[in-house]
Design a protein that fits this description.
- The chain contains 15 helices and 33 strands.
- It has about 750 residues and is of the alpha+beta class.
- A 7-stranded mixed beta sheet has the order 13-20-19-16-15-14-21. It has a 5-stranded mixed beta barrel with strand order 3-4-5-7-6.
């Protein structure tokens, strides 16, 4: 079928019907077969109460009880619907899934309201969009049926295969297959598919990358529409080529995204920080075929040590900054006082010329250089004239970082380990926003940490500007973590005898917990616990606070348009404002207002842009676009998590049978997880493997306690473990604790011999 239910519904206006012919045109349906499929879909959606048909056309049924969500299932069979509006997750029992699978977009109806410790329950009314069109699986013969068993055990089903695919019946250690779905389950009919190809399991890094891309549907990406990059207007730009400017290099891959450049000027009572973004929006026409293509792709994707770029290579090449070469930019001048607080700002279309490139080697050489050294290290020779500027930028970034932390932002020392094949992924993006915390980085040693603080200031200025001018924009919002969730983490820490100072109301802030945990001998595992309550950033049309960036008013990204489409969309708006915005009510008024700066706030009482200029922008900024961008951000997090897990599993494979020291990183009723350095690979010690006693789970204290010998396994404890099995495909590591010599194997018949007070705590 050429369209999904989501595509169909998105074509329909909210408050008026749409004729069948216009709907067919909007969906691009021309053949008789496609139109018949549309008729079937309309009939089904009318019967389930999602749409209604009348003589004047088709319209949506406005039913507030139907909630749009995305399914998240676990391998244990528990499924939750994650609401698109950010509301409370809804628990879906297996008999209420109605053939929906993990990752599908669905409409859910709540059937039972939630309580204090119970999630609301509901059922899937309609599947809007399938997430899985192909999957990795292993072929098995089950009775008389040949089936594909998905490697992803969150897909709680098997797919029937044709008998001809029996040639792929091989041991699980030899190969897996890519299965294309031919039919999703309908009524009593199971899903059907066919084997598209076989993939090797142990054939080296390239084969592992193929597995990763195939699993996430990235192996055959559509090509960008053919379009030559537009040339930006060079006549009406501010000439900033004389301004000393530095490029900060984060990644070394040829396909890595373009990044901003920075400059710094002294002011009487502070500094003027310049952030220059490549003028990508001036090279991609808004609403063009290329622009629509980029909306759909949404993100540049890092897959370990390489990238799947967002932009076509021609656009990237045309917009790139190169040392010594003038280039078009979109710039912002940020006036900061002596304490690093943002006081004023002004945007402009500019031409810049970078004077040098700063990479990690240069920062390390600068940090290692003795203050009075007469010689210049090789890594700094190309930057000899720019070293004072670089040192000033580092000092400013350190001040900005401390200001951000003082405003509630969280830095955690939980970066991705620098494993083979993860060179690019181990370096965070400068505007980290896929999680509610930032990787702890020293601006003096990390180009990512240095550029981050500059970019955050530029995004803060743009958010405040768009909100003050009441122009449509994509804002990045990030709410503070809930006090109850933080208190649960604090209670776990107190059970481990970690000293904490709570506020007068008895609550602990995330910042206070981060500081206390960092000083603990169980630092890493406690910081991992703190990670969970921190909410990820989401994109919205409404201005709001961004705790991650330490911004209380409005925060809108625009500097990293080669990384995120949201930044490119905001760049389009900025270019429109700078090139077409009205700086006075009419031509009869002689006094102009500087609409590019914060001096215009509270002064303008006339439309900055005409209705015809704003219309394409407002139409483009739909809930559908935001849902797509937010979903793609979650997709990138999952993709990068899988890349990390596969690399860690590969690191663990040669260690099977070896005994290593690790740290307990999580405790559950069924066992505990142990993290083994240096790769931080995490494996499970199942409670059934603890043969020396009958162990009970104490949730409040995060530990398992033996009934008879009173031995405890607690969060943060160091343990000696043996790696028993590594399943690279499923990223599963089986561990066994090295028990003390001379232990007696415990029999379940002896369970009553333990103390009566060793009961499980909820």
């Amino acid at each position: 079928m050429k369209f999904t239910v989501a595509d169909l519904i998105e074509q329909l206006p909210h408050q008026e019907p749409l004729s069948l012919s216009k709907l067919e045109k909007g969906l691009g349906l021309s053949t008789k077969a496609d139109k018949e499929q549309l008729r079937i879909a309309l009939t089904a959606l009318t019967r389930v109460g999602v749409l209604e048909e009348a003589d004047d056309g088709i319209s949506r049924v406005e039913d507030e009880g139907l909630i749009e969500a995305r399914l998240r299932c676990s391998s244990k069979g528990f499924c939750f619907a994650l609401r698109e509006d950010g509301g409370e997750d809804i628990y879906i029992r297996d008999n209420q899934l109605n053939h929906a699978w993990n990752g599908d977009r669905v409409l859910v109806r709540v059937t039972r309201e939630g309580g204090r410790r119970r999630s609301p329950e509901g059922g899937v009314q309609c599947i809007l969009q399938r997430n899985t069109t192909s999957l990795l699986a292993q072929v098995e013969q089950q009775n008389d049926t040949l089936v594909a068993v998905p490697l992803d055990d969150r897909l709680l089903t098997a797919i029937n295969l044709p008998a001809g695919d029996s040639e792929h019946l091989k041991p699980a250690t030899e190969a897996v297959v890519e299965v294309k779905l031919d039919r999703y389950p309908v009524g009593q009919l199971p899903p059907e598919g066919h084997v598209a190809r076989s993939l090797a399991v142990n054939a080296g890094p390239k084969a592992d990358l193929d597995l990763l891309l195939t699993k996430h549907g990235l192996r055959e990406l559509p090509a960008a529409p053919k379009a030559s990059a537009k040339a930006p207007d060079l006549k009406t730009r501010d000439d900033l080529t004389a301004l000393p400017t530095l490029l900060l290099q984060l990644w070394g891959s040829a396909d890595a995204p373009l990044l901003p450049a920075v400059s710094l000027e002294p002011l009487e009572n502070g500094q003027r920080l310049w952030v220059h973004a490549p003028a990508i929006a001036e090279r991609v026409s808004f609403g063009s075929a290329l622009d629509l293509f980029l909306r759909d792709r949404s993100e540049a994707l890092c897959v370990g040590d390489s990238w799947l770029p967002l932009l076509p290579s021609a656009t990237t090449k045309a917009a790139a900054f190169k040392a010594g070469t003038p280039a078009a930019a979109l710039s912002v001048a940020l006036d900061l006082n002596a304490e690093g607080q943002l006081e004023h700002f002004r945007f402009c279309r500019s031409t810049i010329s970078a004077d040098g490139l700063v990479d990690a080697k240069a920062l390390q050489a600068l940090a290692d250089r003795k203050p009075k050294a007469r010689t210049t290290p090789a890594a700094l020779k190309g930057l000899k004239d720019q070293l004072p500027l670089l040192e000033q930028l580092i000092a400013l970034a350190q001040t900005l970082r401390q200001n951000r932390l003082d405003q509630g932002s969280i830095d955690l020392d939980l970066g991705i380990p620098n494993l083979e094949g993860l060179a690019e992924l181990a370096i965070p993006e400068p505007d980290e926003r896929r999680q509610g915390w930032m990787v702890q980085l020293d601006p003096a040693l990390s180009t990512a940490g240095l550029l981050r603080e500059m970019v955050l200031q530029a995004h803060r200025a743009f958010g405040r500007h768009m909100a003050a001018l009441e122009l449509p924009a994509i804002y990045a919002v990030n709410a503070a973590p809930e006090a109850e969730a933080l208190n649960d983490v604090a209670k776990a820490a107190l059970a481990l005898e970690i000293p904490l100072e709570l506020s007068a109301d008895g609550n602990a802030s995330a910042q206070e917990l981060a500081v206390a945990f960092a000083a603990s001998d169980r630092s890493r595992v406690l910081l991992q616990q703190l990670r969970d309550p921190l909410k990820p950033v989401s994109l919205s049309t409404e201005a709001g606070g961004n705790t991650l960036a330490g911004e209380e008013q409005a925060y809108a990204p625009w500097c990293c348009a080669a990384l995120h489409y949201a930044d490119l969309w905001n760049q389009h708006l900025l270019v429109l404002l700078l090139s077409e915005g009205k700086d006075r009510p009419s031509v009869r008024h002689k006094t102009r207002v500087d609409i590019a700066s914060d001096a215009s706030h509270g002064v303008i009482d006339w439309p900055l842009l005409t209705a015809s200029q704003l219309s394409p922008v407002e139409e483009g900024l739909s809930g559908t676009l935001l849902n797509r961008l937010n979903e793609r951000s979650r997709f990138v997090s999952e993709l990068q998590g899988d890349a990390l897990a596969m690399a860690q599993a590969r690191q663990a494979e040669p260690l099977v049978g070896q005994t290593l020291n690790g740290v307990i990183s999580g405790v559950q009723s069924y066992g505990f997880f142990v993290e083994v350095p240096p790769s931080h690979v995490e494996g499970l010690v199942h409670v059934s493997s603890l043969k020396d006693d009958w162990y009970e789970y104490r949730s409040r204290q995060n530990k398992l306690v033996g009934r008879k010998n009173r031995r405890a396994y607690m969060l943060g404890d160091q343990v000696e473990v043996t790696i028993q099995k590594v399943d690279v495909l499923r990223h599963q590591i089986d561990l066994a604790v090295v028990l003390p010599e001379g232990y007696e194997e415990f029999s379940p018949d002896d369970a009553d011999a333990g103390d009566g007070d060793a009961s499980s705590e909820d």
